[in-house]
Structures are given as structure tokens and as C-alpha cells.
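Please describe our next protein:
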Amino acid sequence: MYQSLTNKDVVSRKEHQCDWCRQKIKKGEKYNYQTFIFDGDFCQWHSHLTCHRVISAIWDYCDPDEGMDSWGFDEGCGDVCREFICPDCKNWNDEFHDCEMDESYCIDKMGDFFKTHELYPEKREGWYRIWKCREKSKEDES
């Protein structure tokens, strides 16, 4: 059972680790802070604003039945990046279907992309969904 208690953007008074990408949140940096009760345990979650935007955008795409951890975040970001963002990137190698920068995903590019775009399931084929991407309507952009 999950119960959200706090979900807000705050300025870091000390260094934290982002619970999605596992990179540093620097002192003085604005980040997303959440507290919640999960299976009776009190939990805290710290995330870069970009990571928070990306996870909000890809959550349904990743289809996390049991929630998502940082490893699921990495896998989902890699899948979404290669499918929707990498093909338009100058570092994308069409021949090998891979990034020449040897990155599994580009979080900053994904964060910028999801300011103006959204993923949506176009149709379902059995248990499998076909995902597409579209520009957000102006009132949805934030």
C-alpha cells in the first residue's frame, strides 16, 4: 500500500543523491522531495527536477506493476531515448543503432523533450502496447 505525504520542489541545504539517476544533487540546487508510506514504512525520495520530469513522462511506458527503482529508471530511459530521442541526435549511429557517445540515455535531452512532448499508447496488440509520441497541447506544457 502506497500513501503520498509530501511532493514538492525544494532547494537543497546539503548534498543528496538522486534516487533515480544516482548522481549528486548539489547544495543549493532545486530538486523534488517526496515522502510517503509504503507497506507501512516511511520513505523519502530525492530527485533532480529533470529526472522527476522524465519519470513522470515515462512511468506508464515502463509499466511498473510493483513500482520502479533506479535500475528500472535506467532501463526505461534507455528504451525511450533509443526509440524517440536518439534517432534525431547527431551522435546517433544508424548503422549500429547505438549512441556514439556510449551513453545509455541522455537525461538532459529527455528532460527538454518532455517539456513539449508526451508518450501515448496508440493501440494495444494483446498485452503489448504500441507507443507513439506527440507534441503536448499548450495548456499541458509546464
The helical segments are 49-62, 70-85, 107-116.
